Amino acid sequence: MDAICSIKNVSQSFSLSTKKSLEVLKNISFDIYENEVVSILGPSGSGKSTLLRMICGILKPSSGSVFYKGKPVVNINPNVSMVFQNFALLPWLNVEENIKLALKPLNLDKNEVEKYTNMVIKITGLTGFEEAYPKELSGGMQQRVGVARALAVQPELLLMDEPFSHVDTLVAESLRSELIDIWQSTQNPKSILIVSHDIKEVVYLSDRIIVLGGKPTQIKTVIENKLPRPRDYRSIDFLNMVDYIHDIITASDLPDIPEAIETQRKENVFEALPEASPGEIVGLLEFLDSHGGYDDIFHIAVELNREFGDIIKITKAAELLDFVDTPRRSIVFTTIGRKFIESDIEQRKQIWKKEILDLRLVRHLVDIVKNSDNEFLYKEDIINEISNRLPQEDPEKIFKTFISWTRFADLLAYDSETEEVSLQ
Ligand SMILES: Nc1ncnc2c1ncn2[C@@H]1O[C@H](COP(=O)(O)OP(=O)(O)OP(=O)(O)O)[C@@H](O)[C@H]1O
Protein backbone atom coordinates (compact mmCIF):
# COMPACT_ATOMS: atom_id res chain seq x y z
CA MET A 1 0.00 0.00 0.00
CA ASP A 2 1.30 3.49 -0.85
CA ALA A 3 1.54 6.04 1.91
CA ILE A 4 -0.62 9.15 1.53
CA CYS A 5 1.88 11.20 3.47
CA SER A 6 5.57 10.45 4.04
CA ILE A 7 7.89 12.33 6.32
CA LYS A 8 11.44 11.54 5.26
CA ASN A 9 14.53 12.34 7.33
CA VAL A 10 13.07 15.61 8.52
CA SER A 11 15.09 17.85 10.83
CA GLN A 12 14.18 21.32 12.04
CA SER A 13 16.26 24.02 13.68
CA PHE A 14 15.13 27.48 14.74
CA SER A 15 17.31 30.56 15.06
CA LEU A 16 17.40 31.96 18.55
CA SER A 17 17.83 35.56 19.63
CA THR A 18 21.38 34.61 20.66
CA LYS A 19 22.10 34.09 16.94
CA LYS A 20 22.56 30.41 17.68
CA SER A 21 20.17 27.79 16.47
CA LEU A 22 18.13 25.27 18.39
CA GLU A 23 17.76 21.86 16.80
CA VAL A 24 14.24 20.77 17.68
CA LEU A 25 13.65 17.72 15.46
CA LYS A 26 16.26 15.31 14.17
CA ASN A 27 15.92 12.83 11.38
CA ILE A 28 12.21 12.07 11.73
CA SER A 29 10.74 9.59 9.24
CA PHE A 30 7.31 7.98 9.20
CA ASP A 31 4.42 7.30 6.81
CA ILE A 32 0.69 7.74 7.12
CA TYR A 33 -1.48 5.31 5.17
CA GLU A 34 -5.07 5.49 4.05
CA ASN A 35 -7.70 4.54 6.64
CA GLU A 36 -5.54 4.81 9.69
CA VAL A 37 -5.32 7.00 12.73
CA VAL A 38 -1.75 7.77 13.73
CA SER A 39 -0.75 9.54 16.93
CA ILE A 40 2.40 11.38 17.77
CA LEU A 41 3.02 11.23 21.49
CA GLY A 42 5.64 13.52 22.94
CA PRO A 43 6.28 15.87 25.83
CA SER A 44 5.54 19.58 25.70
CA GLY A 45 8.05 21.40 23.51
CA SER A 46 9.19 18.27 21.68
CA GLY A 47 8.23 19.66 18.27
CA LYS A 48 4.84 18.04 17.69
CA SER A 49 3.14 21.20 16.40
CA THR A 50 6.23 21.92 14.30
CA LEU A 51 5.75 18.58 12.55
CA LEU A 52 2.10 19.36 11.82
CA ARG A 53 3.06 22.74 10.38
CA MET A 54 5.43 20.99 7.98
CA ILE A 55 2.74 18.54 6.86
CA CYS A 56 0.35 21.46 6.26
CA GLY A 57 3.04 23.08 4.13
CA ILE A 58 3.31 26.25 6.21
CA LEU A 59 6.84 25.46 7.44
CA LYS A 60 9.69 24.14 5.35
CA PRO A 61 11.90 21.59 7.11
CA SER A 62 15.53 22.65 7.64
CA SER A 63 16.44 19.35 6.00
CA GLY A 64 14.56 16.32 4.71
CA SER A 65 11.18 16.42 2.99
CA VAL A 66 7.48 15.86 3.42
CA PHE A 67 5.75 14.05 0.56
CA TYR A 68 2.03 13.95 -0.09
CA LYS A 69 1.00 11.11 -2.39
CA GLY A 70 4.57 10.95 -3.63
CA LYS A 71 4.94 14.69 -4.36
CA PRO A 72 7.02 17.02 -2.17
CA VAL A 73 4.93 19.44 -0.11
CA VAL A 74 6.20 22.91 -0.98
CA ASN A 75 3.11 25.08 -0.50
CA ILE A 76 -0.03 24.91 1.62
CA ASN A 77 -1.29 21.36 1.26
CA PRO A 78 -4.95 21.49 0.10
CA ASN A 79 -5.63 17.86 1.04
CA VAL A 80 -5.20 18.39 4.77
CA SER A 81 -7.01 20.45 7.35
CA MET A 82 -6.30 21.12 10.96
CA VAL A 83 -8.09 21.18 14.30
CA PHE A 84 -6.40 23.39 16.91
CA GLN A 85 -6.30 22.97 20.68
CA ASN A 86 -7.64 26.49 21.31
CA PHE A 87 -10.47 26.02 18.76
CA ALA A 88 -9.36 29.12 16.75
CA LEU A 89 -12.93 30.23 15.94
CA LEU A 90 -13.74 33.76 14.83
CA PRO A 91 -15.78 35.24 17.69
CA TRP A 92 -17.80 37.61 15.49
CA LEU A 93 -19.09 34.81 13.26
CA ASN A 94 -21.73 32.30 14.28
CA VAL A 95 -21.32 28.52 13.99
CA GLU A 96 -22.57 28.30 10.43
CA GLU A 97 -20.52 31.30 9.29
CA ASN A 98 -17.36 29.91 10.92
CA ILE A 99 -17.81 26.70 8.95
CA LYS A 100 -18.62 28.46 5.67
CA LEU A 101 -15.50 30.58 5.99
CA ALA A 102 -13.38 27.43 5.74
CA LEU A 103 -15.11 26.59 2.45
CA LYS A 104 -14.42 29.99 0.87
CA PRO A 105 -11.04 29.13 -0.70
CA LEU A 106 -12.67 26.19 -2.53
CA ASN A 107 -14.87 28.56 -4.64
CA LEU A 108 -17.84 26.20 -4.48
CA ASP A 109 -21.28 27.24 -5.72
CA LYS A 110 -23.88 28.28 -3.15
CA ASN A 111 -25.70 24.93 -3.14
CA GLU A 112 -22.51 22.99 -2.49
CA VAL A 113 -21.53 25.33 0.34
CA GLU A 114 -24.96 24.74 1.94
CA LYS A 115 -24.69 20.99 1.36
CA TYR A 116 -21.25 20.59 2.96
CA THR A 117 -22.08 22.96 5.81
CA ASN A 118 -25.32 21.16 6.67
CA MET A 119 -23.62 17.80 6.42
CA VAL A 120 -20.84 18.62 8.90
CA ILE A 121 -23.24 20.38 11.25
CA LYS A 122 -25.26 17.19 11.35
CA ILE A 123 -22.40 14.75 11.85
CA THR A 124 -20.74 16.80 14.56
CA GLY A 125 -23.94 17.18 16.57
CA LEU A 126 -24.31 20.93 16.03
CA THR A 127 -27.87 20.89 14.72
CA GLY A 128 -29.83 23.62 16.49
CA PHE A 129 -26.68 25.64 17.22
CA GLU A 130 -26.16 27.04 13.70
CA GLU A 131 -26.73 30.63 14.79
CA ALA A 132 -24.92 30.51 18.11
CA TYR A 133 -21.72 32.55 18.58
CA PRO A 134 -18.58 30.90 20.00
CA LYS A 135 -18.88 32.70 23.34
CA GLU A 136 -22.34 31.20 23.83
CA LEU A 137 -20.95 27.67 23.53
CA SER A 138 -19.17 25.41 26.03
CA GLY A 139 -15.57 24.35 25.30
CA GLY A 140 -16.78 20.98 24.05
CA MET A 141 -19.30 22.56 21.66
CA GLN A 142 -16.69 25.04 20.41
CA GLN A 143 -14.41 22.14 19.58
CA ARG A 144 -17.27 20.46 17.72
CA VAL A 145 -17.32 23.58 15.55
CA GLY A 146 -13.52 23.30 15.14
CA VAL A 147 -13.93 19.72 13.95
CA ALA A 148 -16.90 20.59 11.69
CA ARG A 149 -14.94 23.41 10.08
CA ALA A 150 -11.98 21.12 9.42
CA LEU A 151 -14.19 18.36 7.99
CA ALA A 152 -16.24 20.73 5.78
CA VAL A 153 -13.44 20.89 3.21
CA GLN A 154 -13.51 17.07 2.93
CA PRO A 155 -9.82 16.65 3.77
CA GLU A 156 -8.14 13.36 3.03
CA LEU A 157 -5.92 13.81 6.06
CA LEU A 158 -7.15 15.50 9.22
CA LEU A 159 -4.42 16.94 11.45
CA MET A 160 -5.31 17.47 15.08
CA ASP A 161 -3.12 19.43 17.49
CA GLU A 162 -4.01 18.33 21.03
CA PRO A 163 -7.67 18.90 20.11
CA PHE A 164 -9.26 17.84 23.39
CA SER A 165 -6.76 19.20 25.88
CA HIS A 166 -8.93 22.24 26.66
CA VAL A 167 -12.17 20.38 27.37
CA ASP A 168 -13.32 18.39 30.42
CA THR A 169 -12.32 14.74 30.68
CA LEU A 170 -15.83 13.40 30.11
CA VAL A 171 -16.51 15.74 27.20
CA ALA A 172 -13.14 14.76 25.69
CA GLU A 173 -14.11 11.09 25.98
CA SER A 174 -17.35 11.61 24.10
CA LEU A 175 -15.73 13.82 21.44
CA ARG A 176 -13.10 11.14 20.79
CA SER A 177 -15.74 8.50 20.38
CA GLU A 178 -17.76 10.76 18.02
CA LEU A 179 -14.61 11.43 16.00
CA ILE A 180 -13.95 7.72 15.54
CA ASP A 181 -17.61 7.17 14.58
CA ILE A 182 -17.40 9.90 11.94
CA TRP A 183 -14.11 8.55 10.58
CA GLN A 184 -15.40 4.99 10.42
CA SER A 185 -18.81 5.78 8.96
CA THR A 186 -18.12 8.60 6.49
CA GLN A 187 -14.51 8.11 5.34
CA ASN A 188 -14.21 11.88 5.73
CA PRO A 189 -11.36 12.17 6.58
CA LYS A 190 -9.62 9.09 5.23
CA SER A 191 -6.80 9.30 7.77
CA ILE A 192 -6.12 11.21 10.94
CA LEU A 193 -2.82 12.36 12.44
CA ILE A 194 -3.20 13.55 16.00
CA VAL A 195 -0.52 14.97 18.26
CA SER A 196 -0.97 14.54 21.96
CA HIS A 197 0.77 14.17 25.27
CA ASP A 198 -2.11 12.17 26.70
CA ILE A 199 -1.38 8.43 26.71
CA LYS A 200 -5.02 7.38 27.21
CA GLU A 201 -6.07 9.56 24.31
CA VAL A 202 -3.58 8.04 21.88
CA VAL A 203 -4.42 4.49 22.98
CA TYR A 204 -8.12 5.21 22.50
CA LEU A 205 -7.78 6.80 19.08
CA SER A 206 -4.91 5.35 17.15
CA ASP A 207 -3.80 2.38 15.12
CA ARG A 208 -0.16 3.42 15.47
CA ILE A 209 1.54 5.48 18.14
CA ILE A 210 4.79 7.25 17.35
CA VAL A 211 6.62 8.03 20.58
CA LEU A 212 8.97 11.02 20.48
CA GLY A 213 11.74 11.80 22.93
CA GLY A 214 15.29 13.00 23.44
CA LYS A 215 17.08 16.25 22.66
CA PRO A 216 16.85 17.01 19.80
CA THR A 217 13.61 15.12 19.41
CA GLN A 218 13.80 11.79 17.63
CA ILE A 219 11.43 8.87 17.22
CA LYS A 220 11.92 6.58 20.22
CA THR A 221 9.62 3.85 19.08
CA VAL A 222 6.50 3.11 17.07
CA ILE A 223 3.77 1.02 18.70
CA GLU A 224 1.08 -0.85 16.77
CA ASN A 225 -2.24 -0.67 18.57
CA LYS A 226 -4.48 -3.54 17.56
CA LEU A 227 -7.09 -3.20 20.32
CA PRO A 228 -10.50 -3.77 18.74
CA ARG A 229 -12.88 -0.82 18.37
CA PRO A 230 -14.95 0.46 20.08
CA ARG A 231 -12.31 0.74 22.77
CA ASP A 232 -13.07 0.84 26.43
CA TYR A 233 -10.87 3.05 28.65
CA ARG A 234 -11.50 0.72 31.58
CA SER A 235 -10.84 -2.66 29.94
CA ILE A 236 -7.84 -4.69 31.08
CA ASP A 237 -6.29 -4.73 27.59
CA PHE A 238 -6.66 -0.96 27.30
CA LEU A 239 -5.08 -0.38 30.73
CA ASN A 240 -2.25 -2.79 29.91
CA MET A 241 -1.49 -0.87 26.74
CA VAL A 242 -1.46 2.44 28.68
CA ASP A 243 0.88 0.85 31.23
CA TYR A 244 3.16 -0.48 28.53
CA ILE A 245 3.55 3.01 27.02
CA HIS A 246 4.09 4.53 30.47
CA ASP A 247 6.92 2.05 30.98
CA ILE A 248 8.53 2.96 27.66
CA ILE A 249 8.44 6.68 28.47
CA THR A 250 9.67 6.25 32.04
CA ALA A 251 12.50 3.98 30.96
CA SER A 252 13.65 6.54 28.40
CA ASP A 253 13.08 9.75 30.42
CA LEU A 254 14.04 8.48 33.86
CA PRO A 255 16.58 5.75 33.10
CA ASP A 256 16.84 3.42 36.03
CA ILE A 257 20.58 3.76 36.45
CA PRO A 258 21.32 5.04 39.94
CA GLU A 259 24.90 5.96 39.03
CA ALA A 260 23.93 8.08 36.01
CA ILE A 261 23.59 11.39 37.87
CA GLU A 262 26.60 10.63 40.07
CA THR A 263 28.69 9.92 36.97
CA GLN A 264 27.49 13.20 35.44
CA ARG A 265 28.60 15.00 38.58
CA LYS A 266 31.97 13.26 38.73
CA GLU A 267 32.64 14.02 35.10
CA ASN A 268 31.72 17.62 35.76
CA VAL A 269 29.16 17.75 33.00
CA PHE A 270 26.94 20.81 32.61
CA GLU A 271 23.48 19.47 33.38
CA ALA A 272 20.32 20.80 31.73
CA LEU A 273 17.89 22.00 34.40
CA PRO A 274 14.46 20.40 33.99
CA GLU A 275 11.56 22.84 33.73
CA ALA A 276 10.24 22.54 37.27
CA SER A 277 9.76 25.29 39.84
CA PRO A 278 10.78 24.97 43.51
CA GLY A 279 7.06 25.01 44.37
CA GLU A 280 6.41 22.03 42.13
CA ILE A 281 9.42 20.11 43.47
CA VAL A 282 8.49 20.79 47.09
CA GLY A 283 4.88 19.86 46.24
CA LEU A 284 6.05 16.51 44.90
CA LEU A 285 8.18 15.86 48.00
CA GLU A 286 5.29 16.77 50.30
CA PHE A 287 2.99 14.48 48.38
CA LEU A 288 5.53 11.69 48.67
CA ASP A 289 5.85 12.33 52.40
CA SER A 290 2.09 12.05 52.85
CA HIS A 291 2.23 8.69 51.02
CA GLY A 292 4.85 7.04 53.21
CA GLY A 293 7.90 8.25 51.24
CA TYR A 294 7.23 5.98 48.27
CA ASP A 295 4.75 6.02 45.39
CA ASP A 296 4.18 4.95 41.82
CA ILE A 297 4.83 7.72 39.31
CA PHE A 298 1.54 7.20 37.39
CA HIS A 299 -0.44 7.16 40.57
CA ILE A 300 1.14 10.50 41.51
CA ALA A 301 0.18 12.00 38.12
CA VAL A 302 -3.43 10.91 38.60
CA GLU A 303 -3.62 12.02 42.24
CA LEU A 304 -2.10 15.43 41.53
CA ASN A 305 -4.20 15.74 38.36
CA ARG A 306 -1.10 16.63 36.36
CA GLU A 307 0.10 15.54 32.97
CA PHE A 308 2.36 12.52 33.12
CA GLY A 309 5.07 14.47 31.22
CA ASP A 310 4.98 17.25 33.85
CA ILE A 311 5.42 14.74 36.67
CA ILE A 312 8.38 13.25 34.81
CA LYS A 313 10.00 16.72 34.55
CA ILE A 314 9.42 17.48 38.24
CA THR A 315 10.74 14.05 39.22
CA LYS A 316 13.83 14.53 37.05
CA ALA A 317 14.47 17.83 38.81
CA ALA A 318 14.01 16.27 42.27
CA GLU A 319 16.38 13.48 41.26
CA LEU A 320 18.97 15.90 39.95
CA LEU A 321 18.85 17.69 43.31
CA ASP A 322 19.37 14.34 45.02
CA PHE A 323 16.04 14.46 46.86
CA VAL A 324 14.63 11.26 45.31
CA ASP A 325 15.60 8.05 43.56
CA THR A 326 13.48 6.49 40.85
CA PRO A 327 13.77 2.72 40.92
CA ARG A 328 11.52 1.26 38.18
CA ARG A 329 8.24 3.22 38.10
CA SER A 330 8.40 4.53 41.62
CA ILE A 331 9.78 7.53 43.44
CA VAL A 332 11.45 7.17 46.86
CA PHE A 333 13.10 9.66 49.18
CA THR A 334 16.87 9.77 49.50
CA THR A 335 18.34 10.61 52.90
CA ILE A 336 18.72 14.23 51.80
CA GLY A 337 15.14 14.35 50.46
CA ARG A 338 13.84 12.98 53.76
CA LYS A 339 15.90 15.53 55.73
CA PHE A 340 14.68 18.37 53.47
CA ILE A 341 11.02 17.54 53.95
CA GLU A 342 11.41 17.27 57.73
CA SER A 343 13.10 20.69 57.97
CA ASP A 344 11.65 24.13 58.54
CA ILE A 345 11.68 26.69 55.71
CA GLU A 346 15.07 28.22 56.64
CA GLN A 347 16.78 24.82 56.83
CA ARG A 348 15.08 23.82 53.57
CA LYS A 349 16.57 26.86 51.87
CA GLN A 350 20.05 25.93 53.16
CA ILE A 351 19.74 22.35 51.90
CA TRP A 352 18.33 23.59 48.59
CA LYS A 353 21.26 26.02 48.22
CA LYS A 354 23.82 23.29 48.83
CA GLU A 355 22.15 20.94 46.37
CA ILE A 356 21.84 23.45 43.54
CA LEU A 357 25.44 24.59 44.01
CA ASP A 358 26.47 20.95 43.51
CA LEU A 359 25.21 21.32 39.94
CA ARG A 360 27.95 22.49 37.67
CA LEU A 361 25.76 24.74 35.54
CA VAL A 362 24.25 26.54 38.53
CA ARG A 363 27.64 26.94 40.22
CA HIS A 364 29.17 28.29 37.03
CA LEU A 365 26.39 30.79 36.34
CA VAL A 366 26.33 32.01 39.96
CA ASP A 367 30.13 32.42 39.80
CA ILE A 368 30.00 34.55 36.69
CA VAL A 369 27.43 36.82 38.31
CA LYS A 370 29.62 37.07 41.46
CA ASN A 371 32.72 37.81 39.42
CA SER A 372 31.11 40.38 37.17
CA ASP A 373 32.24 44.00 37.63
CA ASN A 374 29.12 45.27 39.40
CA GLU A 375 27.93 41.93 40.73
CA PHE A 376 25.14 41.88 38.20
CA LEU A 377 24.67 40.62 34.65
CA TYR A 378 21.92 40.94 32.10
CA LYS A 379 19.60 38.09 31.22
CA GLU A 380 21.10 38.10 27.72
CA ASP A 381 24.60 37.37 29.13
CA ILE A 382 23.28 34.39 31.07
CA ILE A 383 21.26 33.15 28.09
CA ASN A 384 24.40 33.34 25.92
CA GLU A 385 26.37 31.37 28.48
CA ILE A 386 23.65 28.70 28.69
CA SER A 387 23.56 28.41 24.87
CA ASN A 388 27.35 27.98 24.78
CA ARG A 389 27.34 25.26 27.40
CA LEU A 390 24.16 23.46 26.35
CA PRO A 391 23.63 24.07 22.62
CA GLN A 392 20.89 21.40 22.36
CA GLU A 393 18.68 23.00 25.00
CA ASP A 394 16.24 25.90 24.93
CA PRO A 395 18.19 28.56 26.90
CA GLU A 396 15.06 30.56 27.81
CA LYS A 397 13.57 27.59 29.62
CA ILE A 398 16.81 26.83 31.47
CA PHE A 399 17.16 30.50 32.41
CA LYS A 400 13.66 30.47 33.91
CA THR A 401 14.46 27.41 36.01
CA PHE A 402 17.88 28.78 37.01
CA ILE A 403 16.31 32.02 38.26
CA SER A 404 13.53 30.29 40.18
CA TRP A 405 15.97 27.86 41.83
CA THR A 406 18.54 30.51 42.81
CA ARG A 407 15.82 32.88 44.05
CA PHE A 408 14.43 30.16 46.30
CA ALA A 409 17.94 29.66 47.75
CA ASP A 410 18.22 33.44 48.36
CA LEU A 411 21.28 33.43 46.11
CA LEU A 412 20.28 35.63 43.20
CA ALA A 413 17.66 38.23 42.38
CA TYR A 414 16.13 38.97 38.99
CA ASP A 415 14.41 42.15 37.91
CA SER A 416 12.21 41.32 34.92
CA GLU A 417 11.84 45.02 34.01
CA THR A 418 15.56 45.76 33.66
CA GLU A 419 16.45 42.09 32.98
CA GLU A 420 19.26 42.33 35.57
CA VAL A 421 20.44 39.26 37.47
CA SER A 422 22.22 40.21 40.70
CA LEU A 423 23.40 38.80 44.01
CA GLN A 424 20.87 38.83 46.85
N1 LIG B 1 9.32 29.82 15.02
C1 LIG B 1 10.03 29.39 16.06
N2 LIG B 1 11.17 30.02 16.43
C2 LIG B 1 11.92 29.58 17.46
N3 LIG B 1 11.62 28.49 18.21
C3 LIG B 1 10.50 27.82 17.89
C4 LIG B 1 9.64 28.22 16.81
N4 LIG B 1 8.60 27.34 16.75
C5 LIG B 1 8.80 26.45 17.74
N5 LIG B 1 9.93 26.73 18.42
C6 LIG B 1 10.51 25.97 19.54
O1 LIG B 1 10.56 24.63 19.11
C7 LIG B 1 10.24 23.76 20.20
C8 LIG B 1 9.11 22.84 19.78
O2 LIG B 1 7.91 23.59 19.65
P1 LIG B 1 6.50 22.91 19.32
O3 LIG B 1 5.44 23.95 19.56
O4 LIG B 1 6.56 22.29 17.98
O5 LIG B 1 6.43 21.77 20.42
P2 LIG B 1 5.19 20.92 20.91
O6 LIG B 1 5.69 19.54 21.11
O7 LIG B 1 4.03 21.11 19.98
O8 LIG B 1 4.89 21.59 22.30
P3 LIG B 1 3.50 21.88 23.06
O9 LIG B 1 2.94 20.54 23.41
O10 LIG B 1 3.95 22.65 24.27
O11 LIG B 1 2.63 22.67 22.11
C9 LIG B 1 9.93 24.63 21.39
O12 LIG B 1 11.11 24.73 22.20
C10 LIG B 1 9.60 25.98 20.77
O13 LIG B 1 9.94 27.02 21.67
UniProtKB/TrEMBL annotation:
CDD domains xref list: ABC_NrtD_SsuB_transporters
Pfam families: AAA_assoc_C, ABC_tran
Gene Ontology molecular function: ATP binding; ATP hydrolysis activity
Residue intervals of the ABC transporter domain: 5-239
Annotated InterPro entries: AAA+_ATPase, AAA-associated_dom_C, ABC_transporter-like_ATP-bd, ABC_transporter-like_CS, ABC_transporter_ATP-bind, P-loop_NTPase
PROSITE patterns, alphabetized: ABC_TRANSPORTER_1, ABC_TRANSPORTER_2
Keyword hit for Transport: yes
Keywords for this protein: ATP-binding, Nucleotide-binding, Transport
Keyword Iron found: no
PANTHER family the record matches: ALIPHATIC SULFONATES IMPORT ATP-BINDING PROTEIN SSUB, TAURINE IMPORT ATP-BINDING PROTEIN-RELATED
The protein's name in its UniProt record: NitT/TauT family transport system ATP-binding protein
